[in-house]
Structure formats: structure tokens, C-alpha cells
Amino acid sequence: MIPDAELQFGMKCIKLMLFVANFMFVLIGFLLLSIGLTIKTIYSDFDHFLVDHYYDAAKLAIALGIIIFFVAFFGCIGAVKQSVCLINIYALFLFLILILEVAVSIVASSMRYNLTTTVRREMRESMEFYNSYTNYVWDATQYNLHCCGVDGPEDWEQYNSASYNLIPVPRLLLDTRFDDVGNSSANATVVIQTANNTMNVAYNVPTTCCYNEECKNQNSVYTDGCLRGITFIVNECALLLGIGAICIAFIQVLGIIFANLLAKSVRRLKTQIEVARSERRQHIYEQLANAGNAKEKVSPVLYTPTSSEA
């Protein structure tokens, strides 16, 4: 028979392990929630350049983070109640969350498919509405990523040059000067002016395309297009979500196994407690029965009359 103190100690250890596991899952939920919110915030800066399904993985991560908080709370209730049923339901919830985490990884991987073509199309379409509602997105993107246009500043040549948000950038022309002996001068680059003393215009671009608002010449304009920066960010976010979901899913598998072991341990300890109580009751019954039998076996006292009484 196992002593009650040992059984109670075992139950306390199992409770502690389950609370530790739940604390770990709370951290995982917080991590998923943080990753989802961060990526959704990053994507919001390029909202007009991305189609809706690029937000699906981030939204799933946020939903998973919230669900894990409730599941961890459910597991704590199972530990306090010492309920095998609640712990098994807790393990089932973990398995369902595991499926959702695999879905997040798949959705994140699909985000990288045909990304460049999709984003380029959305950027070119939004460029046509620069003066109406996409100017803030374009200006913020070009300012933060230090870029200009979709593939380069030349993309703005297709836009209405009379826009109040676009400024003309003088073209920097090359004029190779030669000295008296026919050698080219070290300072060969000069600005050639037209007959009316005005410079040729290279680009009409937003001021956010320039290193500064003056935009003295085309060398003051960012030469890299914004498409490369945006696709790099989306690819990195998708990679982060995919790898993060797989790593968390692996931890989740360990959590499912751990929860099942805990349920079995609780069941075994409860069985041992019931067996111990049953043996104790049986021992008490046997002691009472033996005491009763001992009383029944006591020899009767015989009374023999004396001669005087006769």
C-alpha cells in the first residue's frame, strides 16, 4: 500500500508540471500574437500594394495567439480540478491548434508564390491614383525605403507631369571637354542648358524620391525601385511566419504528448489512492470482524452450588 503523503506529493508534482506547460503555451501564444500584429502593422504601410490574402497568415497567427490563452486557462482548470477528462480535452485543443499552425505555415509559404508580379501590378495601378488617395502610401514607402517608383524613377514619366505633388528634376548631361593636347578633362561632367537658359527635365517625381527636397539633378533621386524593397519585406515576413509556425508546432506536439502523460499519471495516481483507501477500509473491517469473533469465542463461566447452598 502506497502512503497517502507520497500520493499527495505525486499529485502536487503533476499539477506543477501542468502549470509550467501552460505558462510555456501562454508565452507561445504571446509570441504568435506579437508576430501577427507586427507583420500586420508592417503590411499596413504598403496596404495599397498588397492583395487581401497576404494578410491571411498574420490574421491566423493573431487568432491562434488568442485561442492559446484560453486553452492554457482551460488546462489550468483541469490541473486544479485534477480531472482526467478536462486534461484530455486540453490535449485535444492542442491538437486542433497544431493543425491551425500547420495551416499558417502553408499560407505563409503560398504568399511567396508569384509575389513580384502581383505587387508590381498593384503598384502600377495605385500610381494612377497618386493625387487622390494613394499619395500618402507612396510617399511613406519611398521615404522609408529610400526608393523611387516601382522599378525606378522612370516609372513616374508615365504619370501626369502637371501634378502638384510632382516636381521636375533637371537632367544631368555629360559634356566631355578636351584640353589643348586632346586629353579629356578630369571634370568632364557639366550641366548643359538649353537655348532659353533652362535645364532639360529628367523626371517628374514626388519629393520623397529625392535625397532632399531640392532635387538639384537626377543624381539627387533614388535610383532603386520600391518593388524590390517591398517584396523583400513580404518574403522575410512570410519566412518568419512559416518557420515560426513550424517551430511552435513542434513544441505543440511535445505539449500534446506531455498532456497525455499527465492525464495517465493523474488516472494512475487516482487509482492508487482509491486502492489505498479500499485497502484501508478492508483492514478496518477485518479488525472489527476479528474483534467480534474474539468476543463470541469467550468461554462461559459455570456456576457450581456449594454444599451449604444445597
Automatic annotation (TrEMBL):
The chain crosses the membrane at residues 16-37, 57-80, 87-108, 238-263. Its main location: membrane. Pfam families: Tetraspanin (PF00335). GO terms for cellular component: plasma membrane. Keywords: Membrane, Transmembrane, Transmembrane helix. Belongs to the tetraspanin (TM4SF) family. PANTHER family: TETRASPANIN. This is Tetraspanin. The lineage of its organism: Eukaryota, Metazoa, Ecdysozoa, Arthropoda, Hexapoda.
